[in-house]
């Protein structure tokens, strides 16, 4: 007679585990995408792109100049704060920054398929505005998943990945090792699959103190590339300070500004404090 209550007690941990999995599945996009700190009035933007009935808004720095660069920001990043930095580092080039759906002044709701489709639409728009000119792409954190997809589908001259990862599912599994993230996560941003065998010029910048993107996930992405990338290690930077590290600025300017001819020799650089 006592076995039934005991069995009920034994089932409680399993029920709690199942409830946690169900909660993560239902709320995952609220966890993956954090746009609240990026919201801005539409009147403060200077560029719009319409896609599927949604108005996406952002900025163009030095419009009309050649050899454009597209920047895809990180999660919760205010991409408008990158304008002055990129203008200083990349003189003589147009720079396009577009807020993701639901971020900045852009409408809509973020999902992986929507963000990737929007990114291709942006690339195609830039190509139409700059026919025959090379287009380089920069991605930071979440934006590396977007940038990697674009590079797999379009002709990108040079690709810069700041704090990249192999696949969002694998990163999530590192943070929640006891949960079946492969079943839970829908928006995967599988850069390792998109860039497998990719042979274009790539620069990877990684922070030695990054506790958001574990080093193993950046290294796995590097391992699938068709040729070794130019790797810049910043041992004293973390995920939030990587973008403002002086060594990053020097590497970014050097990689994108030295010339527009593909190089063949990979290298690894270690930045200072």
From TrEMBL:
<dbReference type="Pfam" id="PF12146">
    <property type="entry name" value="Hydrolase_4"/>
</dbReference>
<feature type="domain" description="Serine aminopeptidase S33">
    <location>
        <begin position="91"/>
        <end position="165"/>
    </location>
</feature>
<dbReference type="InterPro" id="IPR029058">
    <property type="entry name" value="AB_hydrolase_fold"/>
</dbReference>
<protein>
    <submittedName>
        <fullName>Pimeloyl-ACP methyl ester carboxylesterase</fullName>
    </submittedName>
</protein>
<dbReference type="InterPro" id="IPR022742">
    <property type="entry name" value="Hydrolase_4"/>
</dbReference>
